[in-house]
Automatic annotation (TrEMBL):
Cellular component terms per the entry's GO annotation: NELF complex
InterPro entries named among the record's database cross-references: COBRA1 (IPR010405)
Name of protein: NELFB factor
Entries under Pfam families matching the protein: COBRA1
Region described as Disordered: spans on this chain: 554-582
Coiled-coil annotated residue ranges, if any: none
GO biological process, one term: negative regulation of transcription elongation by RNA polymerase II
PANTHER family: NEGATIVE ELONGATION FACTOR B (PTHR13503:SF3), NEGATIVE ELONGATION FACTOR COMPLEX MEMBER B (PTHR13503)
Length: 582
């Protein structure tokens, strides 16, 4: 079959091939004469060449080598010519030339030496004849060999085939995101949200999808449909990130054919700038509001797409960080949340983003109603926590009188816990406030609010993104891990309540301990090691992390001789650099 492929299609064009030579030699009486005649009839028909060929014979150059080099040279020239034809003359004429050329050469498409020329002709044709596309699609090797420009023409009418091509890329994308969230590198400086939008768009999957889509609106719509379907099926918010990244990748390349027809383009572009700054400033807030207010009657379906763009964790992160910043500013200005239009807009966008799944699932395209109590009760409560901190800090600085220092408030209003359990937006903002105080190394506030995280809306406090950020911020409170009270509140009071039922929590706790084990009091570390031992049901990732931790702890154990000399455990602890100095 390999030899047959070499000559595939020559007979149809009336060109003699190896089989013809074989037949001639089998049926002739004088083989040498027959060979000479075959060479004369099928060789390069240049009169001046006939006298030059014997020179090559004298130099011992085989005829095959000569013909091969002539062939390669001609093929290069032909490829250049095809590319030139695709750019010259009137559009109809140039494509007519290419179509004629395809008609003549297509029968040789399976011949390896000619295939590149046929593929090049198809690549430059904006519309390859249907019949030819079907032949390419039916042959695995041809399909594999053809250019992406030709594949696009095949894909746009074959959603299932396009789905097969896109599916592994989408799986790879989700896996990459999860690998970052579970990375063993825990740092407050470099986390999931550190890379800029532009850097993220350079990722392999986004680049491949961008190339597969080209300027083809139909293929772009198909990819969006896949992303919506997968988001509905899995509730995985990383599909929302990809939705925004893909649009902005096409924006970077100025593919106006697609950007101008995606109704979310300008909104996404503006939000992208906010994500880059990790803050929504007043000017951009007005712009974003304009887009939301501008959704016309009859076009409400665009809200489904906008909500998916706002459900991207990078968008939620930016909106939540901006909300916390606004609340702090309001405390300084003695202003209530309901009097701040900027804050209300942030809540409106958070609400739209958090409602994405319900909206796309129900196909009811209207903005979710904001609960008044979120603005009149919950946010003022958060502001009162900020005030508590200010008051406590001022009290600490005042000269202490007879009554002694005022203790830090250690109770939380029942309403706060209830909000975190029942209201999604309140829960999201509450979690970001806790991340904020942890980053400020505010141990008192952290321990005060931590009990509220055990039961939250849809278990948000045990979601990977929150735990990834929390473990990073906790490295700033590293020294507190030596204290029994702190460890009991954090591990027994929070993490261990979910470890047995949530594998991801088990993984995050092990990640944290791998990073901070040298800071934890030895007795506590021992009990944690027992509590975190994997069960038969535990996945490979948990077992692997547990083994890594066990190895690290074995290395730290003093030898029996040392143990007798140094009764104090503290002296044998190795000094480990802080994350910032690594």
């Amino acid at each position: 079959p390999g030899r047959a492929a070499m000559y595939a299609g020559l007979q149809e064009l009336g060109v003699a091939n190896g089989e013809d030579l074989k037949e001639t030699l089998t049926n002739c009486t004088e083989p040498l004469k027959a060979i000479e005649q075959f060479q004369t009839e099928n060789g390069v028909l240049l009169p001046s060449l006939q006298s030059a060929l014997p020179f090559l014979d004298l130099h011992g150059t085989p005829r095959l080598e000569f013909h091969q080099s002539v062939f390669d040279e001609l093929r290069e020239k032909l490829l250049e010519r095809v590319s030139a034809i695709a750019l010259e003359g009137k559009v109809e004429e140039r494509y007519k030339k290419l179509e004629d050329l395809l008609e003549k050469s297509f029968s040789l498409v399976k011949m390896p030496s000619i295939q590149p020329v046929v593929m090049c002709v198809m690549k430059h044709l904006p519309k390859v004849p249907e019949k030819k596309l079907k032949l390419v699609m039916a042959d695995k090797d041809l399909y594999k060999a053809c250019a992406v420009e030709v594949k696009r023409q095949i894909w746009q009418d074959n959603q299932a085939l396009f789905g097969d091509e896109v599916s592994p890329l989408l799986k790879q994308y989700i896996l990459e995101k999860e690998n970052i969230l579970f990375s063993n590198d825990i740092s407050v400086l470099h986390n999931f949200f550190s890379p800029s939008p532009k850097t993220r768009r350079q990722g392999e999957v986004v680049q491949k999808l961008t190339q597969m889509i080209g300027k083809n609106v139909k293929l772009y719509d198909m990819v969006l449909q896949f992303l919506r379907t997968l988001f509905l099926r899995t509730r995985n918010v990383h599909y929302c990130t990809l939705r925004a990244e893909l649009l902005m990748s096409l924006h970077d390349l100025e593919i106006n054919e697609i950007c101008t027809v995606d109704p979310c383009h300008k909104f996404t572009w503006c939000l992208d700038a906010c994500i880059r700054e990790k803050f929504v400033d007043n000017k951009r807030a007005r712009e974003l509001q304009g887009f939301l207010d501008g959704v016309k009657k009859g076009q409400e379906q665009v809200l489904g797409d906008l909500s998916m763009i706002l459900c991207d964790p990078f968008a939620i992160n930016t909106l939540a960080l901006s909300t916390i910043r606004h609340l702090q500013d309001l405390v300084g200005q003695d202003t209530l949340p309901r009097e701040s239009p900027d804050l209300l807009l942030l809540l409106r966008m958070l609400s739209l983003g958090q409602g994405a799944w319900d909206m796309i699932d129900s196909q009811v395209f209207k903005e979710p109603k904001m609960e008044a109590e979120l603005i009149t009760k919950f946010l003022p409560m958060l502001m009162s926590f900020v005030v508590d901190d200010h008051t406590f800090n001022v009290d600490q600085k005042l000269p202490s009188e007879e009554k002694g220092p005022i203790p830090y408030p250690n109770t939380i209003p029942e309403a706060f816990t209830k909000f975190l359990q029942e209201n999604r937006i309140a829960c999201e903002i509450g979690l970001y406030y806790i991340l904020h105080i942890t980053k400020q190394r505010n141990k008192n506030a952290f321990l005060r609010l931590l009990p509220a995280l055990v039961e939250t809306f849809s278990d948000l406090a045990f979601s990977d993104i929150f735990l990834h950020l929390l473990t990073g911020n906790l490295t700033l409170l590293g020294d507190e891990f030596a204290l029994e009270e702190f460890c009991t509140s954090l591990f027994d009071g929070f993490f261990l309540t979910a470890c047995s039922r949530k594998e991801n929590v088990h993984r995050h706790v092990l990640r944290l301990l791998l990073h901070l084990h040298h800071k934890v009091a030895p007795a506590k570390l021992e009990s944690l090691q027992k509590a975190l031992e994997p069960t038969k049901q535990s996945g490979e990732a948990v077992k692997e992390l547990y083994n890594q931790l066990t190895e690290k702890l074995e290395l730290r154990k003093p030898s029996p001789a040392e143990a007798t000399e140094t009764p104090s455990m503290e002296l044998t602890l190795p000094t480990v650099p802080t994350p910032a100095s690594r």
